[in-house]
Amino acid sequence: HHHHHHQDNLPATSENKFKFVHGFGHVQLANALYFSGDPHMLYQDTNAVSSGTTRCYRVNTGSLTTRTTLKAVLVWTDPAASSSASRLLVNNLNLRTYRVESGAVLLGNEAQTGSQCTDTINNVEVTSQELAENAEVVVVVEGTSINVNSQQSYSLVLVGPSTMTVTPLSSCSSEYGAYAEKDSCSSSSNNDDDDNDEDDQTTAIIVGVVVGVVALIILIIVGGYWGWTKWAHARAMGHQRQQDVEELVEL
């Protein structure tokens, strides 16, 4: 267990904030709890999504007196995967934030994975961004694929400036869901990794069989030719010896 001491006043985008391999760093209680007069505010909602549905939350930063970072954390308890499954995430939810002013989209865990695609591996997704005053951000929770149970419950935590207001929206506008421009690996290739692996395995098996059969045919041809020449040579020698014996007898 390694300890690393650092002040938590770094910008959220800095590389040394956390190493994704080891999770998201230490829990800092002072930043997770909210007391009256604190520079930050905590908003928490527990809800559920079904496959293909989204829930949206509108955040307004207000007059921003101190903290300028908005951090969104989405967590859910994923059902157990079968032991044979190559991908362990059963129910895939995705978090993203939509900046109303600029239309900029930030995907969950994008800063950690460096990927422009939605995260299909983890059941914890985080976004963090610096905001100006009176900025409007829509936080989107999407039920991308729910394979077990009709719905997947989740918990969403927003830590932002104490001046922010959060409003759950009754319906999500389609523009909030527009992240196709980021999805450079296209959702199809992103979700079909398993199929591709299986295709690769099938290809490997076919190639292996073909190579094996060809090798066997070559072996039979070479071996057969070698055997035939040996036999032909022995037969010729046999004839020669027989002639010698006959000549001796005649003598």
What strand order characterises the main sheet?
A: 5-4-7-2-9
Q: Taking Cα atoms only, what radius of gyration do you get, to the nearest Å?
A: 34 Å
CATH topology category name of the largest domain: Jelly Rolls
Structural class: alpha+beta
The CATH architecture of the largest domain comes to Sandwich
| Count of beta strands | 9
- For the report, how would you describe the main beta sheet? 5 strands, antiparallel
Written account of the structure:
With 251 residues, this protein is of the alpha+beta class. It folds into two domains: 15-190, Jelly Rolls (Sandwich); 192-251. The chain has four helices and nine strands. A five-stranded antiparallel β-sheet has the order 5-4-7-2-9, with no helix packed on it. Strand 4 and strand 5 form a beta hairpin.
What are the main properties of this structure?
4-stranded antiparallel sheet, Jelly Rolls, 251 residues, 2 domains, disordered N terminus, 4 helices
